[in-house]
């Protein structure tokens, strides 16, 4: 169960400076350093989210961002964008054609709140599409 928790943490998290994922072995070592003990009454995912909070205090770690695309009606889109701004980490692109289209990065913990806000404010006319569950850098690091 200890290894399962470490695997979930490694899968969900990145180094915020490099946007690269951590290895399971490194997460296991960090969990041992903070003296984390497994609770058999809780699910591994629930414990992994707790471990992430504890590891944030000891090392540079954060949840990998999700990449989303919103398609909103133009008339409600501008008002809704202002309400969504505090929940969005980075806006990658905006397009005003017949509809407002926004591609952005968010913290995975805000997904449900954003989805409910879009459905409520646009009365079902707006849509939310997950483009990428986790935004991470892949491949070898390049040195210059």
Most strands sheet:
4 strands, antiparallel
Indicate the radius of gyration in whole angstroms. Answer: 18 Å
- Average pLDDT figure: 84
Overall geometry: elongated
Helix content: 40-55%
With strands numbered from the N-terminus, the spatial order across the biggest sheet is 4-5-3-6
Overall description:
By secondary structure, this protein is of the alpha+beta class. The protein has two domains: 1-63, Arc Repressor Mutant, subunit A (Orthogonal Bundle), CATH 1.10.10; 66-132, 2-Layer Sandwich (Alpha-Beta Plaits), CATH 3.30.70.240. 41% of the residues lie in helices and 24% in strands. The chain has helices at residues 2-12, 24-33, 44-58, 74-84, 111-122, and strands spanning 13-14, 62-63, 66-73, 88-96, 99-106, 127-132. The strands form two sheets. Strands 4-5-3-6 form a four-stranded antiparallel sheet. A two-stranded antiparallel sheet has the order 1-2. A hairpin with a 2-residue loop joins strand 4 (88-96) and strand 5 (99-106). The radius of gyration is 18 Å and the shape is elongated. The N and C termini lie far apart (41 Å).
Q: Keywords, please?
A:
two-stranded antiparallel ribbon, 2 domains, alpha+beta, 41% helix, 144 residues
Explain briefly what this protein structure is.
With 144 residues, the protein is an alpha+beta fold.
Topology:
Elements: H1 2-12, E1 13-14, H2 24-33, H3 44-58, E2 62-63, E3 66-73, H4 74-84, E4 88-96, E5 99-106, H5 111-122, E6 127-132
Antiparallel strand pairs: 1-2, 3-5, 3-6, 4-5
Helix pairs in contact: 1-2, 1-3, 4-5
């Amino acid at each position: 169960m200890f290894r399962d928790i470490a695997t979930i943490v490694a899968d969900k998290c990145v180094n915020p400076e490099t946007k690269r994922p951590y290895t399971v072995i490194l997460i296991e070592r960090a969990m041992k350093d903070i003296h984390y003990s497994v609770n058999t009454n809780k699910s591994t995912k629930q414990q992994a989210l707790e471990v992430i909070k504890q590891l944030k205090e000891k090392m540079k770690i954060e949840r990998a961002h999700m990449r989303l695309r919103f398609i909103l009606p133009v008339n409600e889109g501008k008002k809704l964008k202002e309400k969504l701004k505090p929940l969005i980490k980075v806006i990658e692109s905006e397009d005003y054609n017949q509809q407002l289209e926004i591609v952005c990065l968010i913290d995975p913990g805000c997904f449900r709140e954003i989805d409910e806000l879009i459905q409520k404010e646009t009365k079902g006319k707006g849509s939310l599409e997950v483009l990428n569950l986790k935004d991470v850098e892949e491949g070898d690091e390049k040195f210059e």
